[in-house]
TrEMBL record, chains A, B:
<feature type="domain" description="HTH marR-type">
    <location>
        <begin position="30"/>
        <end position="81"/>
    </location>
</feature>
<dbReference type="InterPro" id="IPR000600">
    <property type="entry name" value="ROK"/>
</dbReference>
<dbReference type="InterPro" id="IPR036390">
    <property type="entry name" value="WH_DNA-bd_sf"/>
</dbReference>
<dbReference type="Pfam" id="PF00480">
    <property type="entry name" value="ROK"/>
</dbReference>
<feature type="region of interest" description="Disordered">
    <location>
        <begin position="1"/>
        <end position="23"/>
    </location>
</feature>
<dbReference type="InterPro" id="IPR036388">
    <property type="entry name" value="WH-like_DNA-bd_sf"/>
</dbReference>
<dbReference type="InterPro" id="IPR043129">
    <property type="entry name" value="ATPase_NBD"/>
</dbReference>
<dbReference type="InterPro" id="IPR000835">
    <property type="entry name" value="HTH_MarR-typ"/>
</dbReference>
<protein>
    <submittedName>
        <fullName>ROK family protein</fullName>
    </submittedName>
</protein>
<dbReference type="Pfam" id="PF12802">
    <property type="entry name" value="MarR_2"/>
</dbReference>
<comment type="similarity">
    <text>Belongs to the ROK (NagC/XylR) family.</text>
</comment>
């Protein structure tokens, strides 16, 4: 699958290479990519000094990455530096692209992000998917993916992978939607319904949203709990910069943490789950409004106009969030809680009661609550960037493809 | 600190070794130790074939481990095997030992465990530590440690490290007890109160208990939630075989998850925490009994005699545990919940209501609840074994000491 390379540390000819030598080469390719990505443009010498390999070893790795379209040379470095001028390296803007897709309850979206993190193509289609069977929705999504891929290819990019965000529980096979109650989908194999030439990685929208926070957020810590909402309440747990997936892939289901154990029945089978108090529909009902489209916009608009019923409903939702988060903070001890998705837009009216509840239950041990800058864009961006990160983390897996 | 070794893959003389070569040697030493530990006695050739290195490379690593007292040769293999007889290797029973200590509310305990996992010395002193200041307790513990170390040394072992389990929150510096409410200790630096020649690693008792389950339990999965009780309710989260510590080291505090948000006040500052319903003292009060020593024995004895009040109190405690665990299972999606510590002895009367509550709230998604075989021995064994595992994981760190 990959082009053979001279090893940075050659062994005697004919000697069997242990697994670790091949692994070291792959790790070194990734170190070069990550270094140029984080600090580029950089000369080969600068890369070598940063990762502690010889210039010759780095040049071999760099040549391979340029041949594969992952790095590009920008021409000679600016004059005025000490030493012989070298060519400057940057992550390629014409190589692989990550294709992200989102199946929302009320929309479909697809985008392409290049290795530099720039969105190069994007398309959104509004309209409800609630109650629609999976086949026509996936057919529509497939057409949007083709449209975005074509647009990316016109810019010299090629799709390195497809990641799909869904509002539901996804199995650890990363293709089966086990349960998406707000779409009314159960046990749907999305892998079989999307084009075989670009096999998708499917994940929960809150999971992709949390990864977007981690990679693109302002000063997001490495340990945090991400809470988001569309119709349901989603959550994701990030520990040491890695998503906690759980045994079946279902970790982070904050929406079904019991808040008032004898409260109203929930679709999950439980009673008094957080979703019954802080989900969009629950808040609309509590404010005396009828759920429809543009739920969040309606709430935010009325709250901004000073609607007392909406204020009270959002205050109560904040209190319920505070109770559920107290339990989560006790279990996980995260550095921060990040509110994303629809919750970000409603934060001004949710946060005061949420923070009060968390503080009074935690005796000075409460953690910071912050609001996502990405808001509802998080899941789509997280999906596309997850493909980009996979290329940066293991460039050898795509090298030699072009 | 370590004896120089020939590299398995020599580089040209004078060339600066990259960090990864040294790291590879350390990893290979660990692979040899773990292989012999898991499958020994084994010949050098068998070790080489299992870890995919040459026999010569393995012999160099093995010689170093024998010189350091970590492996020993058992003499020639049994006849009847194919090929030239080789000497059989086993993990040493006369090398380093892990010293584990436990500060309980009602006892102190210390033990020494050799690299084979055998307890070689053990001492327990009963008597309450509640309200005693840290200094005299630590002085007493230091004397017990000296007694166990002397006993281990008489058997040819030497202490590779000391790990101390405490019933409270421990900072990530692994020496400061931030808060141990049932001892009434706050911000105590145990590192400064224990002998400097054997610097301790201090951790929460539920954390060490969970590691004991992981390493010594029957078929314990790699993802589980450990729940234990002494006076408080402790918890620990293990993900992919690693303890989830949290930002400040406080993760796993299941005892302070809100169960009934407007319930009785808790010492933590919250209301209606799990500990108010399922802690030992709460259960004793609910059963109309006066808390004293031997609380668990009293409850287990009366429950076995058919005491209806005790049955009811334990059933209600099980229900509260089920509510708190529903939240935890939704957040973490573990493969199992393991009840340890005092809860293990009371499991026959807690489990039915606990499992019922978890099942009715989780609609078929509930996870297995199992009962620890180690029970109250878990934290002490986990502490001692954590030292042993550290030696197996990085033998180079102790090699060359003898």
């Amino acid at each position: 699958m990959t082009t053979p390379l001279h090893e940075a540390h050659p062994s005697s000819p004919g000697r069997r290479l242990p697994d670790t030598q091949q692994g070291m080469r792959r790790r070194n390719l990734a170190r070069v990519m990550h270094t140029v990505n984080a600090e580029g443009p950089l000369s080969r010498a600068a890369v070598a000094s940063r990762i502690g390999l010889t210039r010759a070893a780095v040049s071999t790795l760099v040549d391979e990455l340029i041949r594969s379209g992952l790095l590009e040379e920008l021409g000679p470095e600016r004059p005025g530096r000490v030493g012989r001028p070298g060519s400057s390296l940057a992550v390629s803007g014409r190589g692989p692209a990550g294709i992200g897709a989102e199946i929302g309850v009320d929309h479909l979206a697809v985008c392409a992000v290049d290795l530099r993190g720039t969105v190069r193509a994007r398309v959104v289609r509004h309209g409800t998917n609630r109650g629609r069977p999976p086949q026509p929705v996936l057919a529509e999504l497939t057409a949007l993916v083709a449209q975005v891929v074509a647009e990316a290819e016109r810019e010299g990019l090629w799709p390195a992978g497809l990641a799909v965000a869904v509002p539901g529980l996804v199995a650890r096979d990363t293709r089966t939607v086990v349960r998406a109650p707000n779409l009314d989908w159960h046990e749907v194999d999305l892998g079989a319904l999307l084009p075989a030439d670009l096999p998708p990685t499917v994940d929960n929208e809150a999971n992709f949203g949390s990864l977007a926070e981690l990679w693109l957020g302002d000063d997001t810590p490495l340990d945090f709990l991400h809470v988001s909402a569309e119709i349901g309440i989603g959550g994701a747990v990030v520990v040491d910069g890695r998503l906690l997936r759980g045994t079946r892939g279902f970790a982070g289901e904050l929406g079904h943490v019991p808040v008032h154990p004898e409260g109203p029945e929930c679709a999950c089978g439980g009673r008094g789950c957080l979703e019954q108090y802080a989900g969009e529909e629950a808040v609309l009902r509590a404010a005396g409004l009828t759920p429809g489209e543009n739920r969040v916009e309606v709430l935010a608009e009325r709250a901004a106009q000073g609607d007392k019923e909406v204020h009270r409903a959002l205050r109560d939702a904040g209190t319920a969030l505070g109770i559920a988060l107290t339990g989560a903070v006790n279990l996980l001890d995260p550095q921060a809680v990040v509110l994303g998705g629809a919750l970000a837009a409603l934060a001004p009216w949710l946060l005061p009661s949420l923070e009060l509840e968390l503080a009074r239950r935690s005796a000075g041990r409460a953690c910071v609550v912050s609001v996502s800058r990405l808001g509802p864009e998080g899941p789509l961006l997280g999906a596309a960037h997850s493909v980009v990160r996979a290329v940066l983390d293991d460039p050898a897996a795509v090298a030699g493809r072009t």
